[in-house]
Amino acid sequence: MKVKSQLSTLTAYSPGLTSEQVKRKYGLTEIVKLASNENPYGSSPLVRQAIADIDHFAIYPEGRALHIRRAVADHLGVDENQLIFSSGLDELIQMISRALLEKGTNIVTAAQTFPQYRHHAVIEDAQIREVPLKNGVYDLDTMAKQIDAETKIVWICNPNNPTGTYVNSTEVEKFLQSVPSHVLVVMDEAYYEYVTAADYPETIPLLNKYNNLFVLRTFSKAYGLASLRIGYGVGATSFIKQLEVVRLPFNTSTLAQTAALAALEDQQFVEKSVKKNAMERQKYIDFCTRHKLSYYPSQGNFIFINIPSKDPMKVSQYLLENGLIVRPFSNGIRITVGTKDENNKLRNVLKNKVLIST
Ligand code: PMP
Asked: Is the pTM of this model over 0.70?
């Protein structure tokens, strides 16, 4: 079998070890997983109730996700036809790439960001223009200079995964004004709910002004529904109509649609999760400051600690052997902000490795 030649440059996504695998491998009884930016408080109790009532498993789901569509449209104050639903944002990133990219086209994004933008551009044989982060933040001025007639998509992860940093409303508006209308500007706002910065851009109202703006949101993070796979995009109705062509029939399950509807109705659960996250996130910042560790100021439910000289792979291995799963990068480790107890445990073990040993 001969697949597209560019596939040989990629590897299949690896989610890392599961808690069960780590337990078995290292003979541990308790594992704290702070690697995938999930909600440590679970999801709203209303979700469990809502899905318990589902009994029509033999019937295909509502293909256009009508109920959750109406609820999200109301929640955001947009038209229902401005929305497209997907099996998590991973699928939406694939759909957008599939619809827009081919050989000869290019994407512009940051060098250290969510890897799926690049992954799908490679599969579609498009060129990738990656601009280094500037002090850990998306450098929109330099990215604007990379755009040409063949640029199809600019991906902006805001807040950025893995750094947690954000571009503010002034920077985003300035950028949107400079981008030609043939380029789709995608704002990936997977961590939108967690943001506490006052100058973070509210992009939904900007959709009326910029026809080429597209916003991504998910139920996987603050809503705590990562296992059910549901997210959505908001954009111009004309573009959504074209994108619908590449969407698979029944791409979001009845369980996911029903759970998302219940989760959306429980804003109190989201507010509580966000508040606790902000408090716990601050404790990591205090810890880094106290121990003179370099970190990026995060607006998400995770924090990136820069430890290039400490060999982040070794540090994460040490944490793993102590029952703590984090995500290593070449220049540091990304830690999901967990519950109070989980974070205390992580910081205690991290202190031994990073501060005491070499
Ligand atoms: N975008 C970003 C920035 C993410 O961090 C993630 C999940 N890690 C996704 C998209 C995909 O999320 P999901 O498919 O669960 O909606």
From this structure: yes
